[in-house]
Amino acid sequence: MAEILDFKKTNRKEIIEKIKAGDLLIIPSDNVYLIGCNALKQGSVAYLREIKNNKEEMFSVIAPNKNLIYRNFKIKNNSYIKKLPGPFTYVLEMKKRAVNRAVNAGSKFLKVKIPMHEINEIINEAGVLKVRDESGNNNNGELVNNPAQVNSKTINLGKALQFDGIDDYVS
């Protein structure tokens, strides 16, 4: 069932949980409203394609900040990125897979924008899941393509990661 949440009146944590869960969102942007979802959730992207009747066209993604763009994309002209946030969408080449393959039909390119709206802060808070090395060796990373976090079943180790064997990994 559809639910309308006012960004100004809704608890930010509730919106973040909805983004992480893969709920579809209608997001205000600089000049239009966007229909979006968590670009790491294959089921959400597939559902978005279904309701938009879009089988192949590359979707745009909202980058929560410029650092994510510099870290994940090949930038040939820095002056374009300096214009963000704003009403611009750039087609950028990924250094490595940064979203579920269904977002851009497996292409190495992705349409990226940072709208001038408070949704950026919320998306930034929802963020990429971080993996922290508890050994003290500082081998930290980010989960890519949303591997499942599960409870360890064999011995009591707490949380563990379950990879799909296709495109989940830690970078």
Task: Produce a short descriptive summary.
By secondary structure, the chain is of the alpha+beta class.
SSE order, as H and E? HEEHEHEHEEHEEEEE
**Global structural class:** alpha+beta
- The residue fraction in helices comes out at 10-25%
Give the averaged pLDDT, no decimals. Answer: 77
Coarse shape: globular
- Read across the widest sheet, the strand sequence of neighbours is 3-6-5-4
Largest β-sheet summary: 4 strands, mixed
Count of DSSP-assigned helices: 5
CA-based gyration radius: 17 Å
Number of strands: 11
Show unreliable segments: none
Q: What percent strand? A: 15-25%
**Distance between the ends:** 36 Å
Could you explain the architecture of this structure?
The protein is 23% helix and 23% strand. It has helices at 12-21, 42-52, 66-72, 78-81, 119-126, and strands at residues 25-28, 33-36, 60-62, 73-74, 89-94, 109-113, 130-131, 141-144, 148-151, 159-162, 169-170. Strands 3-6-5-4 form a 4-stranded mixed β-sheet. A 3-stranded antiparallel β-sheet has the order 7-8-11, with no helix packed on it. It is globular. The model has no long low-confidence stretch (mean pLDDT 77).
Describe the protein's topology.
Layout lengths: L11 H10 L3 E4 L4 E4 L5 H11 L7 E3 L3 H7 E2 L3 H4 L7 E6 L14 E5 L5 H8 L3 E2 L9 E4 L3 E4 L7 E4 L6 E2 L1
Parallel strand pairs: 3-6
Antiparallel strand pairs: 1-2, 4-5, 5-6, 7-8, 8-11, 9-10
